Structure formats: C-alpha cells, structure tokens
Amino acid sequence: MYYVLGRLYSANPARIDDKSSYDDQGIWWDDGQVFTRPIKTPIEVRLKPYESSNPDMSPAMPSLFKGIVPLYSDALLVALRSAGVDNLDTYAVRIHDPDTGKWHTNYKAVNVIGMVSAADMAKSVATVHDGIPLIDVSFDRLVIDPKKTHGFLMFRLAENNSAVIVHERVKQAVIAAGIHDLEFFKPENIAL
C-alpha cells in the first residue's frame, strides 16, 4: 500500500518567511533529479513571528516544512532511513526563530530523488491540463499502480510532482519513531 505524505493541519507551519533567502539558488526541489551544481549551505530560513491569533500558525517546530525547499527534521530523516529509504539528498539548514532568537540546525533541506510515473490513469479521476499526463495533473481520485513503483519506498509522483508517495513500511517506521504530526493519505481519498 502506498500513501501521499502530508502534514497535519494543526502542525501547519505558516511561519516560513517568504522573504527568506532560502530559495535564492534557482534550484527546482521537486523534479526528482540529482542536482548538477553545488548547493550553497547552510541554507538559511527565517520564520515569521508567531501570532497566536492566526489559526494557520503553530509555535511548534514540525517534522516537515513543505514548500519551495522541503525541510525535514533530523528525527524524520532517521525514521525514513530506518525504513530503508535511500534516495534522499540532504543539505544543511539553519532556521531562525525570531521569537526566541534561536537558530535551529536539526533540519535538512531534502531533495527526493526519483520521479515515478505510478498513477493508474485509467482508474484515477484526473484532469490532464496540457494533454500530457506529467507534472501538473490534477487528481480528484488517485490510484497508484504498485507494479509501476519499481519497489521505491518513497518518490515523487511524475504525474503530479508536488506529491511525495511513501510505502506502508515508511508510514509504520515514522509512526514507530513517535512522529505524530504527519499524515499518510490514501491516494484515492485526497485531491491533488
């Protein structure tokens, strides 16, 4: 069984400051390819000040910051590797919290290597925007064909590269590691 990796809404870190310089290197973090040029590290990220009245913010540091540059906590990376995930390139990160003045260094920027065309398009309910079922397909119902996954435990979906797909073994390892702020959506139950 495969799942779409997500994050609990209550762990939504709307605190990433869009004006941070963390994406000033012109790198595409969602194409599943090994970077061909060096990445300047540590990548610096700044958080916005926490606003308790903003329901989209949390003072907690989540296991996963989804965004232009995906940021995974070291604890999450340990859990993924314990499950056998071996297709991640990681880069040092420093995250500044203006509320505490602290720089968090227990995160890595993560490039998930491998983009796999694993959707069963005949069974999925999808809109193919440009006539080619790659990169930007919108799914109302996604069906993963396990025969097309090539045994990958974690990969980007070629039909919609914003989706990171994980195997049941990965889900179980993350839960066993005590990480509870992630969700594992059944592909047929989530719109992408």
TrEMBL record:
Domain Immunity MXAN-0049 protein: 57-184
A Pfam entry, by short name: Imm11
Entry protein name: Immunity MXAN-0049 protein domain-containing protein
Domain of life according to the entry: Bacteria
